[in-house]
Design brief:
- The chain is mainly β.
- It has no helices and 11 strands.
- A hairpin with a 3-residue loop joins β5 and β6.
- The strands form 2 sheets. Strands 2, 4, 5, 6, 9, 10 and 11 form a 7-stranded mixed sheet that branches. A 4-stranded antiparallel sheet has the order 1-3-8-7, with no helix packed on it.
């Protein structure tokens, strides 16, 4: 399974960005997807999850502003980010897990495959 993110960049406070994760590899191996973000010196933080059993989960700080979605025909996962804030700045990673129904879907330990990350800067 390979994951490649794109769509990062610089946005103004209150602006929007959409991240895309192009996914390749056997579909039967992956049952959950997520977006994480990380800033230097801090742990990787789960932002949004799309789980085959549970549905979607969001960290409290992005609820109502971010939306995770997928397009199977395009083998892509998206993160639509609206009303961006300075604290949304970081490197955003796409992740996939073999398991569904994760007990802690926002915990990076549950994910098997990762993309290389894309930088998002809000100022």
């Amino acid at each position: 399974v390979q994951l490649v993110e794109s769509g990062g960049g610089t946005a103004q406070i209150g602006g929007t960005l959409r991240l895309t994760c192009l996914i390749s590899g056997p579909t039967h191996l992956r049952n959950s997807y997520a977006w994480f973000r990380q800033i230097p010196g801090k742990a990787r933080e789960g932002v949004a999850v799309l789980d085959r059993i549970v549905g979607t989960t969001y960290v409290d700080s992005v609820k109502g502003r971010f939306t995770i979605s997928e397009d199977n025909a395009k083998a892509s996962l998206y993160l639509q980010m609206n009303d961006l804030k300075v604290e949304d700045t970081g490197v955003y990673y796409c992740a996939a897990a073999a398991a569904a129904g994760l007990d802690y879907p926002l915990d990076f330990a549950g994910y098997n495959w990762w993309g290389q990350g894309t930088q998002v800067t809000v100022s």
